[in-house]
From TrEMBL:
<dbReference type="InterPro" id="IPR000212">
    <property type="entry name" value="DNA_helicase_UvrD/REP"/>
</dbReference>
<keyword id="KW-0378">Hydrolase</keyword>
<dbReference type="Pfam" id="PF13538">
    <property type="entry name" value="UvrD_C_2"/>
</dbReference>
<dbReference type="Pfam" id="PF00580">
    <property type="entry name" value="UvrD-helicase"/>
</dbReference>
<dbReference type="InterPro" id="IPR027785">
    <property type="entry name" value="UvrD-like_helicase_C"/>
</dbReference>
<keyword id="KW-0547">Nucleotide-binding</keyword>
<feature type="binding site">
    <location>
        <begin position="209"/>
        <end position="216"/>
    </location>
    <ligand>
        <name>ATP</name>
    </ligand>
</feature>
<protein>
    <submittedName>
        <fullName>DNA helicase IV</fullName>
    </submittedName>
</protein>
<dbReference type="InterPro" id="IPR014016">
    <property type="entry name" value="UvrD-like_ATP-bd"/>
</dbReference>
<feature type="domain" description="UvrD-like helicase ATP-binding">
    <location>
        <begin position="188"/>
        <end position="547"/>
    </location>
</feature>
<feature type="compositionally biased region" description="Low complexity">
    <location>
        <begin position="1"/>
        <end position="10"/>
    </location>
</feature>
<feature type="region of interest" description="Disordered">
    <location>
        <begin position="1"/>
        <end position="27"/>
    </location>
</feature>
<keyword id="KW-0347">Helicase</keyword>
<dbReference type="GO" id="GO:0004386">
    <property type="term" value="F:helicase activity"/>
</dbReference>
<dbReference type="InterPro" id="IPR027417">
    <property type="entry name" value="P-loop_NTPase"/>
</dbReference>
<keyword id="KW-0067">ATP-binding</keyword>
Amino acid sequence: MSTPSTPSTSVDDDPLARERAHLSSSRRALRAMREDVEALDISDVTANWVNARILERQMGERIKALADLSDTPLFFGRLDYLHAPGAERAEGAEGEQFYIGRRHVHDGDGDPMVVDWRAPVSQPFYRASKKDPMDVGLRRRFGYTGGDLTAYEDEHLSDPAETARTSKLLQREIERPRVGPMRDIVATIQPEQDEIVRSGLGGTVCVQGGPGTGKTAVGLHRVAYLLYAHRERLARTGTLVIGPNRSFLHYIEQVLPALGELAVRQGTVDDLVAHVEVRGTDDAAAAMVKGDARMAEVLRRALYSHVSMPGEPLVVVRGSRRWRLPAYEIEEMVRELLDRGIRYGAAREALPQRIAHAVLVQMERSGEAPDDRVQDAVARNSAVKAAVKEVWPAVEPAKLVLRLLTDADFLAEHAKGVLTEDEQKTILWALPGSGRRPARSVKAARWSAADAVLIDEATDLVERTHSLGHVVLDEAQDLSPMQYRAVGRRCTTGSATVLGDLAQGTTPWATRSWQEALGHLGKAEAVIEELTAGFRVPTDVITYASRLLPYIAPGLTPVASVRENPGFFDLRPVTGTAEVVAACEELLRNEGSTGLIAADARIPELAEALTASGIGFLAPGEETTAETRLTLVPASLAKGLEYDYVVLDEPRAVVDGEPDERTGLRRLYVALTRAVSGLIVTHAAALPPQLA
């Protein structure tokens, strides 16, 4: 690695000075690109105000995407090709040089100053090696302090005399202190990660990755890559990132904008299924049954039970003529629609047109010449509408679910052979001990989160859910089968990136296998990739946490930390909260963020102790500042978050705070693996025996 020593009088004699000069030129070029967009006059190119508004919005997004962030380097690497990419490799032909950065920057002549990291020509920056140099003579990495270029490091990939070595700049970037929201990893993407990032839009990828393997970053960067490679298509169909909670979404929300991508929606599963206001909760047993995929069949049966066969003929009066359709003919139409398996609502809309067509056939046989307007008029005839209402009535999804949960006979009829009697009793609201009283209306009902998912399923049975082009589902291991189905409905015609860790499943219904989960998602053909190289969690910390794996995820490959710095790790017996606060004060003397993670029930006591000591603290998801770098984190919200240093309070209490030991140990595994540089475990009670 080369670093500046003494100031140079000549840029030509100082490689670092030349690179700084290129950075300055690139920033000027980016500023010029932004000014060109800002100066555009669209008054003469828009036909109407609608087009004008659309173009204004697109220009606004383009201007935002061209923002030059002072503390975000425009480029982080350079590739010197032996030959010009794509050209014939003739002897003596000159190579070409490319600077790799977060976005494309060109000069006034249109020549590239910086190449987007997603471009094909950038791929060797991530994948080239001494064994396969990919026609790259030199790969240069740059080091920055803030926004200033302060160092560079070279690898001569095609030089057999130079031995492969670990990049110091790469290690430094991985271990750089975490302050503020999650940042992008474009400068540190590893070959196995890059392969997932650049996988095609047509296929679904499931990434199993332990703590610190970068699976969330890989998922977000895959979105950025797909938007680059398939921008027009995804602009039409849309993309969505689904996270476990608001704190997590707030933590990751700056990653895509930093890469110039501003049009990606973010939300939770609860946001997707927000058909009703959620004001109630389920116990674990009820939530387990409601989240079971068998509920989809119960809902289907209950919905289609409203369809009945006609008992008498239909008579349509038009003017002085009467047209009679026998009951058996209407029944044939109904059965044909049922056999086609189309949505309940679509079939209901099709039935009056089928009936009207049959009437038109009779009219034509009698010598009349009806047209489409006559058919539409017959379909709107009061007798036809009454017959359809009787045979195929409209059904409101929320009312259907409400009846299933409050009418024991109705539930028993449609759950027969699917749910046991005990399971039916578990989800009924009206039974003693259920904690729910029968609701008189949809608005009055105290719906739970699991109920909302059932309503979403019923809604899709009535009317097809809109499908997006690509969906990223993070922390997927915690979803129930019915939640997977809800997400799958949003990408039936698109693809998905599924991210998770089976060892971190902390719900009673947590995923048992990715094959099973992908089946519920409707993506059984998905490719399953496993990331086992740990870039975030220090060696000593991940080794200690991995003691829990045989108890929470037998057979799962432990994460192997690739960091040279083993990190700081200390098991510390304490007698009270004062010593926990002292541990926080100790870690806050280091640069970066600190998290105090504890069982949810312990949070009020710890908050009081921190306040009494004059230590300011934040809630999960709130951005750290220079003045406040401590976050107080309930163990239930720790998943997906990371801090430079962590104090983990009372592991035994974390385990005991869950309904069963396995879930508690998984919650503890999550809490143990949030640290980037150091971890102190404080405990007054004995540690769980699994950590012995």
